[in-house]
Each structure stands twice: as C-alpha cells, then as structure tokens.
Specification:
The chain has 157 residues and is α+β, with helices and mostly antiparallel strands. It has one domain. 34% of the residues lie in helices and 31% in strands. The protein starts with a strand and ends with a strand.
Length: 157
C-alpha cells in the first residue's frame, strides 16, 4: 500500500533521513538499509520503505496549492502487503517521532489524494470521512501511537 508523507522541516532531506534512521534503529529496534542516489534516499525495513525525495518527483508546489499547506519535504511510503499490520504500527510510531522532531506542518496521504492526517498551526487533524478500508486500520489504538492530541474533522480530497 502506498502513502505520501509531506512535512515542513528546517532539516535537509539528508539530515532528516539520518534522524529517521536513528528512530527506527533506537525506538523500533529494526534493521535498516539505506540506498542513496541523486533523486532520493530510501530507508528500508522489513515492513516498509521510506523514499525521501531529493528531487521534487511528487510536485510539492501542487501539494502546497491543492491542500493549502506549507510543506517542503516529501517522503513516499510503501507498506509491504504481507506485513501491513506491523508496518502501519511501526510507521505511525515513526510519524509520532517526526511530529515531535519537526514541529511544522504535516500531511499524510493515502494513494496520492486521500488526506488521513494533517497538522497545521500545531493542531493535528484526523480525517473523519474514511472509506470502509481506512476505517479498519486507522483506529484509535493506531492513532494513540502518534503520542499527540488530535481532533477529527472531514478533510477534502
């Protein structure tokens, strides 16, 4: 399953990749592989991969305009189907750490358009308008892994 995580951060992509790598190693106790090229830095685990864009593949300007949210980093997320439950759990723990570390805006999209999470003006918003599949995995227990207060509100596509 594919997601995109957009952040507003003062860190460079390389520095952010190092921070994420340390989160995964120190807090999740998972093995990490790193692959770098001129377009992206890919952090791989047993359950998911995170591709931090060095080149603007996902068109951040479109995201800023369409979702009216100031972000400057895109992380493409791929959860592996056979370990989805463990992957989404680990991913939300990482997102929780990023919420604390980065402090700025955040946008978490499923399949490139469905807003699941949005943080702006220090307020985390969870989309209340979920499809039948999203309702099954975006549970209160999963959201508690973010370790961040939130409100629920319908978010546009």
């Amino acid at each position: 399953m594919d997601f995109e995580l957009f952040l507003e951060s003062n860190l460079s992509c390389k520095s952010l990749a190092e921070v994420i790598e340390q989160f995964i190693i120190n807090f999740l106790n998972e093995k990490v592989s790193i692959q770098k090229d001129e377009e992206e830095i890919v952090i791989g685990t047993e359950y998911f991969s995170l591709a931090l864009e060095l080149e603007d593949i996902s068109d951040i300007n479109f995201v800023r305009t369409h979702y009216d949210l100031d972000v400057n980093i895109c992380i493409r997320v791929q959860l592996f189907g056979n370990t989805f439950d463990q992957g989404i759990t680990s991913l939300f723990k990482v997102i929780g750490k990023l919420l604390k570390q980065c402090g700025g805006n955040l946008l978490f999209l499923e399949n490139g358009s469905d807003q699941l999470l949005r943080k702006e003006n220090s307020q985390l918003i969870v989309n209340s308008d979920l499809d039948q599949y999203q309702i099954k995995y975006l549970t209160p227990s999963l959201l508690s892994l973010l370790d961040h207060s939130y409100i629920e509100r319908k978010l546009k596509k």
